[in-house]
Prior knowledge:
By secondary structure, the chain is an alpha/beta fold. The chain folds into two domains: 6-47 and 309-407, Alpha-Beta Complex (Aspartate Aminotransferase, domain 1); 71-307, Aspartate Aminotransferase, domain 2. It is built from eleven helices and 15 strands. Strands 2-8-7-6-5-3-4 form a seven-stranded mixed sheet, with helices on both faces. A four-stranded antiparallel sheet has the order 11-12-15-14. Strands 1-13 form a two-stranded parallel ribbon. Strand 3, helix 5 (133-141) and strand 4 form a beta-alpha-beta unit. The chain starts with 15 loop residues before the first helix and ends in an 11-residue tail after the last helix. Bound molecules: D-malate.
Amino acid sequence: MVTINENYLKLKAGYLFPEIARRVNAFAEANPSAAIIKLGIGDVTEPLPAACREAMVQAVQDMGDRASFKGYGPEQGYLWLREKIAEQDFQARGCEISASEIFISDGSKCDCGNILDILGDDNRIAATDPVYPVYVDTNVMAGHTGEADASGKYGGLTYLPITAANDFTAQIPSEKVDIIYLCFPNNPTGAVATRDNLQAWVDYAKQHGSLILFDAAYEAFITDPTIPHSIYELDGARDCAIEFRSFSKNAGFTGTRCAFTVVPDSLTVETSQGEAVKLWQLWNRRQCTKFNGVSYIVQRGAEAVYSPEGQAQIKGLIDFYMENARIIRDRLSAAGLQVYGGINAPYVWVQAPHGLSSWDFFDKLLQAANVVGTPGSGFGAAGEGYFRISAFNSRANVEEAMARIEANLSLVGTSPRQSSDPA
Length: 423
Ligand code: MLT
């Protein structure tokens, strides 16, 4: 008889974004003339930078010539890409990271889940609340949690609330935790972590032998020069942190797929027998066994991000989305909504009006304004009553969505909390 991984049955509802798509599709079918504007999933809308496209076209030509054709590439990624990342993303910021510590992949979402392959099953895991659902759901799938309670919190996890009450700062917990997921600039709240806060986490991890899994997918959107872009800007982080990065949001690669994970050579953990093992060695072994690398063509496109033209073009994209974020913040604030984020991150975190639940606000906004956002409760119990609006869209759509929200805010009205939450 076939058995299944029954941990999957513990997962609450569907994965957040497919659940949103399901509701939006149902609404669109029932209302075929509605011009729906999607500010839900953080998916880019603007074309790939010309430098990346030109490099990929050239790479296609390379594949058409026996002399420059490429078969399997290195599982870790091509050295010419890893060297540019090490120099421009890390060494230029004073971080001691070398090309050999960088692993190219097809997405940081995949890497955030795959990293559990090399970690044990008995670690105490801490994640912020609200949180990018991948960190929690992959731990549920791996059997690292108990069942979810009515609010959606899983037994056995340590939740670190990041709310307006604590200025969206992940506080060091009183209990000892082994693995800590931190994502800053934060998805979903758009908050950032200060240098002092991140240094406190690194000091904690070093003192307790813990591991920080730092998701820096949104670092390119930081506008405040005092905010660290990488965990490796903090003293000691090479000994206690893995960092995830992505080309999805800074260079528009959500459909092209390229990312990387940094595993420092100095990062060691002890086996149950007390023997020191480098996580680099385990991750390298995992990638060589389960992954055949990212396509040559895509890696050439990613390499072009680091050319002078590529740098100028991605700055243009980031500035464009951050202007959208400013418009969203300003117009929703002017309409009387309480908003957070959107200054160092492409997400604006909005308090639902009239005490509405996140899903009620989602449904009402969809029906009244035909605008889609992401219910905050989908990111965790502490996100209840909030709503995330993504700045990734065309200017025209952002302006139109704001106008529709302004015009319909009074129609949203009040309703009992959580009446339309998914089961
Ligand atoms: C989001 O909307 O939270 C992101 O697009 C999800 C992701 O990057 O996987």
